[in-house]
Design goal:
single chain, alpha+beta, Thrombin, subunit H, six-stranded antiparallel barrel, about 15% helix, about 40% strand, globular
């Protein structure tokens, strides 16, 4: 049996630079790969999660509990604050969330990291 490569087993998880270089990313905001621990609140429940990528408009999140599109959540990042968001896509443990606050709020939350993340010049 042939051994599968990472690209074959996870074709939708591409490095940001690859998406941008191929011109495939039509998102409103730049996104950057991160690996940050966070808390995800849905209703009265709070779960540990990881933020896999971040933009001024949303994030890719990994959480052990599958959620459906349209679910309203809150992401809590230690020392940064809480971000209300809505699940816009879900594939198993991976979620795409759209922030329910404007990009200026996210800029303020991460103002000390914008240059490091490469998001300082995002609209």
């Amino acid at each position: 049996m042939a051994k599968k490569t990472v690209e074959q087993t996870a074709p939708d998880i591409k490095p940001v630079a690859e998406d941008q270089a191929q011109g495939e990313d039509s998102r409103q905001f730049k996104r950057r790969s991160v690996l940050w621990p966070a808390k995800l609140r849905v209703g009265k429940h709070e779960l540990s999660c990881q933020i896999w990528n971040l933009s001024l408009g949303g994030a890719r999140v990994r959480v052990d509990l599958p959620l459906q599109e349209g679910v309203e959540i809150e992401l809590s990042l230690s020392g940064r604050g809480d971000i209300p968001a809505t699940v816009v896509w879900a594939k198993g443990e991976l979620l795409g969330v759209a922030f329910e606050v404007g990009p200026e709020v996210i800029r303020r939350m991460f103002e000390d990291r914008l240059h490091v993340l490469g998001l300082a010049d995002s609209d």
